[in-house]
Amino acid sequence: MKNAVYQKCLNPDCRATYDVGDPLFACQKCGDLLDVCYEWGRLNVPTSLKDFETKWVTRNRPLDRSGVWRFQELLPFCSSEYCLTVGEGQTILQSNDEVACYAGSDPGNLFLQYEGMNPSGSFKDNGMAAGVSHARMVGAEHVACASTGNTSASLALYAHTCGMKCTVFIGSGKIAYGKLSQALDYGAQTIQIQGDFDDCMRQVQDVCRQLKLYLVNSLNPFRLEGQKTIMFRVLEALRWQVPDWIIVPGGNLGNSSAFGKAFVELKELGLIDRIPRLAVINATGANTLFELYENQGLRFNGGHVASEEICKYYKKLDADGYRPDTLASAIEISRPVNLKKCLRALEVCNGVVREVSDTDILDAKAQIGLHGLGCEPASAASVAGLKLLRAQGVIESREQVVCILTGHQLKDPNCTVSYHMDTQGEFSNRPVEVANDLDAVIAEIQK
Ligand SMILES: [Zn+2]
């Protein structure tokens, strides 16, 4: 009999299955993405989300304290002995009326999910807790990833914690210094490729195949299992009520893919009665999903995705010499590896995709900093996206919205300082230079 947990190819014409212990990162028959699948009837799943509250009492146990592993019954792919935690998922869902007002939502209806509060400062720790646990389960000794920054920081932290070797590939261009400093500090072997993220992604897959390293990029299906827990914590903070909308920045599309899978599984299990709508927000300078979904009408179509349309689009990008370009470096990706899974999430969540400019992102970021806990540029795409969707009347002011803030404000301090030093920014807060003189300082403060 097949195991209750296995991996399955996303392609409906293939549907090949693999053992949960196979360290694959693509279907070996057709090359498509893989899912982690569960036969829930053979697993021990709570009958109510409220049952998870029993773990609040046993928070002294590291796995019950973890914001990922306290939901282990909803991602039961490995036994507890392999589950690795560094204290991820101690995040908060903050109701924020000032940012709601900026974006055009009614007071009480906007919540900011602060994933920057994770140990390495970004949402990536959710996926890495799961991905590196799977690496341990299959006996991997050396892990690798390509990264715009946050993934390498997170992987370096988790690998170091459990004594694995770690190699990270980063582009020679725009990695934010906060992120690079983490990978170096956590002792990762850091390889800088002369190219962008998409180039790194291609290299790391070839290297992993050749050297048999364990690949922990977001095409690794086990990472997405960890990222499902962001939604479980949102529901937990809302006392298990489903919000109307989830808004998430779109880069490699791992989060949106994981969120869609989380809601489908919760619905199947009868743990929620409806699925929220999903909005994925691209930066204008890296808008592949927006172009394909909104302008060209690409759909999941029960898994029969028109792959030739995607190939045609990528060929055009190559022919035009296109390079993605946005200050939101974490989502500066033109060939998102989880595109098909994201299309599935958009289908099940009746989703929309929008693009927002760097100016809109930076203004929204300044508002989040002024009224919230601050975030890195890519995160603010979610709030900029809400503002746009409110202006377009797609989201109503009375609807309850959760914006995911994916990374910490200190990930990219250069970007923040540049915005505030530039008097052109709508919310710039420029430092003032004053002579080293008491009267002059007092005069300036009293201005
Ligand atoms: Zn396949």
Shape: globular
* Cofactors, ions and other ligands in the entry: zinc ion
Mean pLDDT: 95
SSE arrangement, N to C: EEEHHEHEHEHEHEHEHEHEHHHEHHEHH
Structural class: alpha/beta
Radius of gyration: 21 Å
Number of strands: 13
**Biggest sheet record:** 6 strands, mixed
Give the termini distance in whole angstroms: 78 Å
Tell me the strand order in the biggest sheet.
4-5-13-10-11-12
The number of helical elements comes to 16
Looking at the chains present, what oligomeric state does this protein adopt? single chain
DSSP helix fraction: 25-40%
Tell me the strand percentage band: 5-15%
Low-confidence sequence ranges: none
Which short descriptors sum up this protein?
alpha/beta, 4-stranded parallel β-sheet, globular, 447 residues, 6-stranded mixed β-sheet, binds zinc ion
Q: Please, could you describe this protein's structure?
A:
The protein has 16 helices and 13 strands. It has 447 residues and is an alpha/beta fold. The strands form three sheets. A six-stranded mixed beta sheet has the order 4-5-13-10-11-12, sandwiched between helices. A four-stranded parallel beta sheet has the order 8-7-6-9, with helices on both faces. The longest helix is centred in the middle third of the chain and has 17 residues. The mean pLDDT is 95. The site of zinc ion has 8 residues, from loops.
